[in-house]
Amino acid sequence: MAPCRPLSPPHLVSLCSQDCQMLLNQLREITGIQDSAFLQAALKAANGDLMEAVTFLMEERAEGLVGDAAAEPAPWEGSAAGKQPPPGEAINPLWGAGISRPGHVSRRRPLEAHSPENKNRPKRKRCEVWGEKPKGSDWRRVGDWPVGMKNIGNTCWFSAVIQSLFQLPEFRRLVLGYSLPQNVLESCRSRTGKRNIAFMQELQCLFTLMLGTRRKFVDPTAAVELLRDAFRSAEEQQQDVSEFTHKLLDWLEDAFQLAVNIKSPGDKSENPMVQLFYGTFLTEGVHEGKTFSKLETFGQYPLQVNGYRNLSECLEGAMVEGEMDGAQVVTYGQERWFTKLPPVLTFELSRFEFNQSLGQPEKIHTRLEFPQMIYMDRYLYCRKELVQRKREEMKRLKEEMVVLQQKLERYLKFGSGPARFPLPEMLRYVLEFITTKPSVAVPPAPGTGTALPQPHRSQSLLSTSWVLLCSVLERLDAGPEEGALLPAGPSRQQGWSASPQPPQTPEPPAPRLVSEEELRLVQGCLQRWRAEIEQDVQDLKESIARVQLSMEHMYCDPLLQQVPYRLHAVLVHEGQANAGHYWAFVYHQPRKSWLKYNDISVTESSWEELERDSFGGLRNASAYCLMYISDSVSHSLPGEEGVAEAQEELEALSPELRHYLQEDNWRLEQEAEEWEEEQSCKMPQMEPSPASELQELSSESGPDQPSTCQQSPRCLSSEHARMAQEQTAQAIANTAEAYEKNGVEAALCEAFHEEYSRLYLLAKETPSPRNDTRLQHVLIYLLQNNAPQQVVERTLLEQFADRNLSYDERSISIMKVARAKLREIGPDDVDMEEYKRWHEDYSLFRKVSVYLLTGLELYQNAKYREALTYLLHAYQSNARLLRKGPRRGISEPLIALYRRNCLLKLNEVAASLFISREEDGVAEGMVILNELVIPCMHLMSSFEISREDLDALEATRSRWCSYLGREDMDAKLQMKLGELLPRLLDCSTEVVVLKEPPKIRPNSPYDLCNRFAAVMESIHGASAVTVK
């Protein structure tokens, strides 16, 4: 057996080249391009940024790799030819003079290595895991954090499946505890049996490293190579997740069957893999008039995606085919019922279909929702009678819903012509018409014979009202060109240019001659008809809502909620049918959170991110495989004591596996020492630059403001654009009609105006103590602080130029046009220094908000020492912002109040410890005084002090002065008190150095707003909260 070995010491020196190879493999997977030289050139041009290289390559592929004759002969270079926008299309004047003129837009080469934008653009987080900075921390595991898995060339499919299975304790226990007696090993002669045993041994080694290694990621080469040999496809072809999972389960089943055969030869029911992953279902039906019934076994249950909105609909469609109504004779129909469900239930979502016209497979990108908890009772054979009754009731409700919707549609789409309109609105328009009085009476032209006859009977009056109604219908059918009832709004093209003086509004149409009697009678009839029709519409809507509610709650019967399954893992595919990338979301029970396993990267995630990446419909990423686990498996998962259970698993390993793990960890230390020696021999004269030192020490290098942005004004603004990625994607999604009709320029214009209007209205909302809209978006902060219009417009335009918007063709096109417009903005249009300062202020504002919220949470949980540190930093930074304007920062009295309360609480603690006369207590009290109380007093007294702060300082000093001359304090304590009092009474001589608080995990705007609301609510409610 050739065990899965980690990198040997000679290989560690060439770590960068191996990371480069991993990046090339990743590029090959995502783009489907196999030319290594082509991929290498793209990677070099993108400065090592994986997503930038993917964007370049996709642009090249979309443009057909056509260069002009003057281009350099290198095959990877794109065309430098510019694009001329369509004539007559004006550019939005909101974007400044530098980009408001139409004309030639020069497009730079996609792979231009020396582009200043590429040099200054910050590295994306995704790329950092590949070892751009080969330090020890880059390949060392942090605590008990789960490890990643190295991609050795188109093996993301292996990582996604294995990581999902490894996080099942029962499966992990079975693999790590697998062993065969020596006589079984010797008697195994078949090539398949030997291969399965070898694979199990390699999988054991891999699981051992994943459990106890000190490395950040493990190398699965040995196990992968065994699997690859079994596939008929070429080595470089990416494997399908379902195909691999089927193969994996088959091998595992065969390997464990060797152990089962010792006691029960041929009995697969005793096979632990069968017990864990396989179930049975019964198919009952009618074929050509004859009934049939058969029992089948399944491992991964396939589900069709097309035509369904959620997982329940998929399952319902898979379980019932054709007509099974017993009241009538049918020639075909069948129902499937699960007779036995496995503890691990895997659904395989069929997201690929073969396009007959193109002669190639295509991926289905439609949206499919799935829940975190699903009840399987409605698909079980033991619930057959109850579920069949429910299905009959559901069928009846659907038929009733169709009838109700058809009735409602007749009211809302009334008329006999091609254009139809809501009947209540038509009656309202007729009412408006007959009650309109003309400003100047216009007599009928002589000889035309068009004067209305004077009615004399009520029948003729009713006929007149009906004629009016029909005339309205005819006018509506005629369309806006022949005269619409409602005035048309301004055209979209006018929205891009300065509005001319509006022409004088013409008088509305009105009856030429209406008597009071006619008016009363017609008005009364129309009002009565309108009220009747509106009541009918309201009744229909209420009936539809009742039916819809009944359908939604049809299967909420407690009898159908006895078999819950919880979502354990989601395997995601991003790309097209012939190429793409796999990763997995797995629920981590000890941390009560979702983790994202993406090759060597393992990061904390959320259900919101999982929904965005897995449901599909928004971009090319969607779930491909769902793994649910039963309650019995869920309860066996490690809880809060996960670390202790992991240690128990390590101790339960066989001596051979423990030795293998110890050897690997020892080898890691040897590699680390050799690497450090190698680095120390390189350029010993180099010292850290002031910029790098500033980066390490800067308090702005937290989650909200990376310190690397100090040289590039666009770095912070790009980060703020990425924060608004979801809102931008939604604005672009709403421009589908404009994009199809008028092109990408019009779509960008519409999205720009829609987003600007939305944010402008939010900026005008009245602020409240529990809601600060500035945390939602940088543009709201700029608008509320009256930032220059050029800064506001460029910020919003940069939001649409974010390269992370590469979801589909429309978003990519809009992003390219926005980036072209950004390049047209010159220094005369926007002061980039001022632009940079505004974004620095917003970043500092977010940081102050995070520090304040953290301090308040700690204060409510009685952690006053930590709370005071955050509140001091929040107050100091906030003061800098408030000097520029009242809306630049947060409410100063709020921070001051809790800073003051923290000071008084800590002073009480320090004083109590000091007079306890216990050596440790006195020392601890002195530490609190020296590190927190005295520095805080100095900072409070150095500003324009409030009455409340002054009282707090006096109370603090009085407490310590009261201890002077106390008889129960010995001379030693009195001496220490004498040394403290001068510093307490006059803090102005103190040199205060604030210790930087611990770094805080970044918050998205959505999470930060929710956190702000929760904390502010808890303050007013006077109850402690815990915000994750």
TrEMBL record:
**Which reaction is catalysed here?**
Thiol-dependent hydrolysis of ester, thioester, amide, peptide and isopeptide bonds formed by the C-terminal Gly of ubiquitin (a 76-residue protein attached to proteins as an intracellular targeting signal)
Query: Is Ubl conjugation tagged as a keyword?
Result: yes
Q: Which InterPro entries match?
A: Papain-like_cys_pep_sf, Peptidase_C19, Peptidase_C19_UCH, UBA-like_sf, UBA_8, USP, USP_CS
Q: Which residues form a coiled coil?
A: 387-414
Cellular component GO terms held in the UniProt record: cytosol; nucleus
Q: What is its EC number?
A: 3.4.19.12
Q: Where is the composition biased (Pro residues)?
A: 500-511
Give the matching Gene3D superfamilies. Answer: Cysteine proteinases, DNA helicase RuvA subunit, C-terminal domain
Which keywords fit this entry according to its UniProt record?
Coiled coil, Hydrolase, Isopeptide bond, Nucleus, Protease, Thiol protease, Ubl conjugation, Ubl conjugation pathway
Q: Which residues form the signal peptide?
A: none
**Biased composition annotated in UniProt, kind: Basic and acidic residues:** 109-120, 127-136
Which Pfam families does the UniProt entry name for this protein? UBA_8, UCH
Q: What class of enzyme is it?
A: hydrolase
Every copy of the USP domain together lies at 147-631
Q: Which GO terms describe its molecular function?
A: cysteine-type deubiquitinase activity
**Places the protein is found:** Nucleus
Q: Which GO terms describe its biological process?
A: DNA damage checkpoint signaling; protein deubiquitination; proteolysis
Q: Where is this region: Disordered?
A: 73-136, 481-514, 671-716
Give the source's domain of life in one word.
Eukaryota
What is the name of this protein? ubiquitinyl hydrolase 1
Lineage of this protein's species?
Eukaryota, Metazoa, Chordata, Craniata, Vertebrata
